[in-house]
Specification:
Blueprint lengths: L3 E5 L5 H6 L6 E5 L8 H13 L2 E4 L13 H14 L3 E5 L2 E4 L2 E7 L5 H18 L4 E3 L14 H12 L3 E4 H11 L3 H5 L7 E6 L3 E3 L2 E3 L8 H13 L5 E4 L8 H22 L21 H15 L1 H9 L21 H19 L3
Parallel strand pairs: 1-2, 1-12, 2-3, 3-4, 4-7, 7-8, 8-9, 9-12
Antiparallel strand pairs: 5-6, 10-11
Helix pairs in contact: 3-4, 4-5, 8-9, 10-11
Length: 362
């Protein structure tokens, strides 16, 4: 068993990665940066992939949805994978569009049986068209997605176990969601199918209006390193541990120090394993699940996408959520009284900032 430790490749880090490559065992590349790359640039990425283990990491498929993924998107993925031959590839369990509305970034879908079924159907399509399944990553959210009736560990477990895919467990996302929604991240570990964890993301964030924002601009916090040690104490398979940093880059030595800390925490967890009595408890294995036939399932995602992207509709909704002029899904009306209004506004602001930064080329 050989655990590997590495970084997300960013242009700002390229020179240091060349200089200190012996201390970085695995690299992760954002796939969207390469999907339309010319042949010479693809050859550069292929060379990296031949030199060391490399992951391709996707951000735009939107596979956690009741709506099917466009086959043209999957064709581009298949072509990229064939061209560069990565060690593996991954994608988020998020939705990024609904009813023609582009959210501009990753959003957590309602955690329901319908979105589980839609995601499993999308993964079956991916397996057919791409030839392999991605590792599946849990996403950060500032609020419990509106309309959810499953908790996050159960929702993730149904999809991970039902698809048979490996899991890319983002420990900062797990930590942020636990802090934002009031549950125990260590207990959540024990409710996930940890035997399917193939890779781990570590990152840092910041407090924003009393909630943890996953922004990848800060050092990995102690709590997240602690979760890494807990994970290592509960697993026996080799894992790839990758630190994500998207900006606010420190001197490269500080990133190497974080990698060293990650190595030490995994080693400590492995050493504990033989005496650790904790065991992961996962949901019942779901061999397969058809896509939901409920026509209202996708309508609910579209309603949520509109709330995130249309300020006028959102203001009307927040002023009077029971307004009859809004086509609120009937099964959500009972939950309106406990709506996390501040969370909804924060998610909308965060997504708007992401769309604006993309439009400005930031």
């Amino acid at each position: 068993m050989t655990d590997r430790f590495g970084l997300g490749w960013r242009p700002e880090l390229a020179l240091d990665l060349l200089r200190h490559g012996d201390q970085v065992e695995v690299l992760e590349f954002i796939a969207e940066d390469w999907l339309d790359a010319p042949t010479p640039r693809l050859a550069t990425l292929a060379a990296w992939c031949r030199e060391r283990p490399c992951h391709l990491h996707g951000t735009s498929l939107g596979l956690a949805s009741t709506a099917p993924i466009s086959p043209s998107r999957l064709t581009r993925w298949r072509q990229l994978i064939a061209a560069v031959q990565p060690t593996c590839w991954s994608e988020h369990l998020a939705f990024v569009r609904a009813g023609g509305i582009e959210l501009g970034h990753l959003a957590a879908p309602p955690r329901t049986a319908d979105t589980c079924a839609g995601t499993l159907a999308n993964l079956a399509l991916i397996k057919q068209m791409v030839g392999s399944l991605p590792h599946l990553e849990n996403v950060a959210t500032l609020m419990t997605p509106l309309g959810s009736d499953l908790d996050e560990p159960e929702w993730l477990s149904r999809i991970i176990e039902g698809s048979g895919a490996g899991m890319l467990l983002d420990l900062h996302n797990l930590y942020a969601n636990a802090m934002n929604q009031g549950w125990d991240p260590v207990a959540a570990l024990d409710s996930l199918p940890l035997s399917q964890v193939a890779a781990v993301h570590l990152a840092g964030g910041r407090l924003w209006r009393g909630r943890v924002l996953d922004d990848h601009l800060h050092p990995v916090p102690e709590a997240v390193f602690g979760l890494l040690e807990e994970l290592a104490a509960r697993t026996s398979q080799a894992i790839d541990v990758i630190i994500e940093r998207d900006g606010g880059f420190p001197p490269f030595g500080e990133l190497l120090d974080e990698l060293a800390e990650a190595r030490a925490r995994v080693a400590a967890g492995r050493a504990r394993r033989h005496r650790d009595t904790h065991q992961g408890i996962s949901s019942a294995l779901i061999k397969s699940a058809p896509r939901s036939q409920d026509p209202g399932a996708q309508a609910r995602e579209i309603f949520l996408a509109r709330l995130y992207t249309e300020p006028g509709m959102r203001e009307q909704f927040l002023a009077d959520p029971s307004a009859t002029t809004l086509d609120i899904p009937a099964e959500w009306r009972d939950a309106i009284s406990t709506l996390d209004r501040e969370g909804l506004k924060m998610v909308a602001e965060s997504l708007h900032a992401k769309r604006r930064s993309v439009a400005q080329g930031v």
